[in-house]
Amino acid sequence: MQNLFLTSDKKARKEYNKLLKQTAKAVSDAFVNESAYSGPTPDELKEIVRQDSILPEHGLGWDKVFELTKEKVLPNLLRTPSTEYMPHLHGPSLLETIAAETIISTFNQSMDSWDQSPVATEIEVETIRHLCKLYGYDTSKADGVFTSGGSQSNQTALLLARDWFCNKQLNYDVKKYGLDEKCSKLRMYTSEISHFSMEKSCHIMGLGYKSVEKVPVDNRKKMDVSALRSLIEADIKAGNIPFLIVGTVGTTDFGSIDPLEELSQLAREHNMWLHADAAYGSGVIMSQKYSDRVKGLSLCDSITVDFHKMFLMPISCSAVLLKDGSTFDALTIHADYLNREEDEEDGYTNLVDKSMQTTRRFDALKVWMSFQTRGRDGWSKIITTSMENAAYLYSILRNDSDFAVITEPEISSVVFRYKGNDSLSGEELDEINKKVRRTLIHEHGTIIGQTVSDGRVCLKFTLLNPRVTHEKLDELKELIKKLAIS
């Protein structure tokens, strides 16, 4: 049972260094070219990974298992740092954040109680304080917590918004008494193209999909505020209870930004909570040139921030920020074995008090290290480059009669459709666009996205990687055109 873990023992430290050195070399060797994928189809991958058992009677040992990994896994992983990878809000990982992941995994802190993560707790608290300042909150009142991703950040915000509204406006404590008849009338409002975590969260909270009112968008894919006002007024007349508006700051497909200033005014008129789902667009704050596009974030009662999207950090890394940190009280419950009140009175912070999770990873370290490594100027260059790449791609597609572009990008996503000379039907063009995407994946190692707009199949570039050049975008446009007519 030797060398199970990294310890102070010399042999254990030697083994740890050996494994990490081997792994680092094998990973770097897997980057054989600039393609994003080696090409196997789903059926081919199933055959590659199929084994009689992954739990042999006697262990194979590290060397044999590592050879299997190098043979079957590493060559077939997506190479997200490639300039050929641009389908989703899922990008490469900055080098310093990969180093941070090694530290996180090796020390294996658990962020629920101080005695499981002493310095990690203090780093997260400090990082949250600076994030609140970055997004325009008063740091003497604001607070936040790291989460597993945008969906959990959104769910946390929605739950806190519901409990806040029930306590303040309905004089009813959901935390103590559960849902009552009035809660069945609660209504929230979100864009018709907002993230599906809105419906999922309301289901989990016991409000159901019926509590989610989907608001139409305009031709820029932004929430239509006039339509929102009409929906709120209609619900009030029907006896329903509006409690929450969600503004999306970077819709998943289009990167569109809802008008937060107008939404804030409407929320205040009706004593509603305003949440910003900025899982995508939160990174825009780092661009010295374009940060004004998200200046309305400081008006929101809560903000979802994702660091594994525009911020280019390893999955998972997200946070939810609150303008008034006392609202986290809705999640606090004390347990003698975990977050004792006497410890907290003596200055021991137990982060489980404001988290839906108990066990959590020390993801704040990635932000803490990367922000200091790159600085404001470095981050501004990364974010600005990606946004301007999107603007360039939009311009060359718009000026090419073979393509239709859905809307001008506000962040770094471009949704478009090959349409040729319009001699083909919509259904035929749908199939051509689907074929182009599949051919790119399996024959060219290039991965782009696919979605639907106005009932028609579209292609999508999600440009998070600042290594992408205008020349690369020119080449890909021409390749798509070539594949479409072949």
TrEMBL record:
Keywords: Decarboxylase, Lyase, Pyridoxal phosphate
Protein's UniProt keywords contain Lyase: yes
Cofactor(s) for this UniProt protein: pyridoxal 5'-phosphate
Modified sites of kind N6-(pyridoxal phosphate)lysine: 309
InterPro entries: Aromatic_deC, PyrdxlP-dep_de-COase, PyrdxlP-dep_Trfase, PyrdxlP-dep_Trfase_major, PyrdxlP-dep_Trfase_small, Pyridoxal-P_BS
Keyword Lyase: yes
Coiled-coil regions listed: none
Gene3D superfamilies, per the entry: Aspartate Aminotransferase, domain 1, Type I PLP-dependent aspartate aminotransferase-like (Major domain)
Listed CDD domains: DOPA_deC_like
Matches recorded under PROSITE patterns: DDC_GAD_HDC_YDC (PS00392)
Annotated transmembrane regions: none
GO CC annotation: cytoplasm
Recorded family membership: Belongs to the group II decarboxylase family.
Protein name listed in UniProt: L-2,4-diaminobutyrate decarboxylase
Organism annotation: Treponema bryantii
